[in-house]
Write a structure and sequence with these properties.
Strand order of the largest sheet: 3-4-9-6-8-7
Number of domains: 3
Number of helices: 11
Largest sheet: 6 strands, mixed, barrel
Number of strands: 11
Order of helices and strands: HEHEEEHEEHEEEEHEHHHHHH
Radius of gyration: 32 Å
Shape: elongated
Structural class: alpha+beta
Mean pLDDT: 86
Length: 393
């Protein structure tokens, strides 16, 4: 009997560990999912990728193709705005570079990197990101004579503080010989780059027309209706320019965010499933032990009731033993969860490993399940006929 009770205590402790861990991972997924990406209504924002370089397009021809494709996409009924970017956002990719900044002397070991992207005019309107200062790119920003850039607020604040960065210059690379040949013409609100877990980076945006590198681009199309209904029309508009041009990764930006969080979702799903399974096994074990206890104490229960014990007293007698087993399990499980939580801290986001509400939720679930598992044998014990119980062998 001691072995059975010991196993139930171990099951309760293990169940608390898994439920608490599942709560932390579910909370992490929810926090990541609801992080403000800096883009408006991402469920109405379609992204699709096109790579004209794979079809042998030269840089001038490629740039002309993307510009014409943008005009075609904007002509689709239900499309409010469209643009493209060299690096797809919220997809985990990156293009970063060390930068030199006018008026800023870098300290030893200072991180001077910024995350880069090359975009088309109208990008901010399409993405729903606020332009805080200055202007967007326009047709004057072509060629190499007037190199310009837009920076995000994180970049502007880091290097210029409260001063306006408009008109200041930046350049690629570090050191005193770096060319400061790129003028800042705008400041935009912060937005995510790789994904929610990576957070906001210092970002620099260049006009795609000044970015003479062959490669794919991600088009972004803001719709006024259900975006899924426009997928076919968007594909056809690209095919009008080149039927052989592959169009891939077509989805809403909300779906792109879900894909980026697929690992976190899998961890939350598996931990939740194992937590539920362990809790059910603990409940079955507790029920089995308490049913066995009631069967062994049938004569005792009958005698107590014959001597005037009330049904509620009998129920409490059985429930007290069940709750004792649960309490012992929690006495083991809670300290173990506390000491083991440090090993999952790197996988969490905006939640502490010792989150009180998560622990209380796991405790409440276990208590409710245990009470139900113990109540059934307890009620059965309270319904024993004293005469039959005294004759029970």
């Amino acid at each position: 009997m001691k072995l059975r009770k010991g196993l139930v205590i171990a099951q309760v402790a293990f169940s608390f560990l898994l439920l608490a861990g599942a709560g932390l991972f579910v909370k992490t997924l929810a926090n990541l999912k609801h992080t403000n990406p800096g883009f408006k209504d991402i469920d109405r924002l379609v992204t699709l990728q096109v790579d004209a370089a794979l079809n042998g397009y030269s840089v001038p021809r490629l740039q002309a193709f993307y510009t014409q494709a943008l005009d075609n996409l904007r002509s689709v009924p239900g499309v409010k705005a469209a643009s493209f970017a060299f690096v797809p956002v919220l997809a985990g990719g990156e293009w970063d570079s060390s930068m030199s900044v006018e008026g800023h002397t870098s300290a030893d070991g200072e991180d001077m990197q910024a995350f880069m992207n090359a975009i088309s005019p109208g990008y901010w309107k399409t993405m729903g990101t606020t332009m805080l200062e200055g202007r967007d790119f326009d047709p004057r920003d072509t060629g190499k004579d007037n190199r310009v850039a837009i920076v995000n607020r994180a970049f502007a604040t880091h290097y210029f503080g409260d001063k306006s960065p408009i008109g200041r210059h930046i350049g690629f690379g570090g050191g005193p010989k770096s060319k400061l040949d790129i003028q800042i013409v705008g400041v935009t609100a912060n937005s995510l780059y790789e994904g929610p877990r990576a957070g906001v980076h210092r970002q620099v945006f260049l006009p795609f027309d000044q970015f003479n590198v062959p490669g794919s681009v991600s088009f972004y199309v803001r719709t006024s209706s259900d975006p899924n209904l426009l997928f076919g029309s968007l594909r056809r508009k690209i095919a009008e320019l080149d039927p052989a041009m592959p169009v891939y990764q077509m989805k809403t930006l909300e779906r792109q965010l879900d894909d980026t969080l697929s690992t976190e979702r899998l961890i939350a799903l598996l931990s939740g499933a194992f937590g539920i399974l362990a809790t059910l096994l603990a409940a079955m074990g507790l029920y089995g032990v308490m049913a066995f206890v009631v069967a062994r104490r049938t004569k005792e229960i009958g005698l107590r009731m014959a001597l005037g014990a009330q049904r509620s007293e009998v129920v409490w007698m059985v429930m007290k033993e069940a709750l004792t087993l649960v309490g012992l399990g929690l006495a083991v499980g809670i300290p173990c969860a506390y000491f083991l939580s440090r090993y999952v801290s790197s996988q969490l986001f905006s939640v502490t490993p010792t989150d009180l509400w998560t622990a209380l939720s796991a405790l409440a679930i276990l208590a409710a399940v245990a009470a139900g598992a113990g109540l059934i044998p307890a009620r059965r014990a309270s319904g024993i006929d004293p005469i039959r119980a005294l004759r029970y062998e």
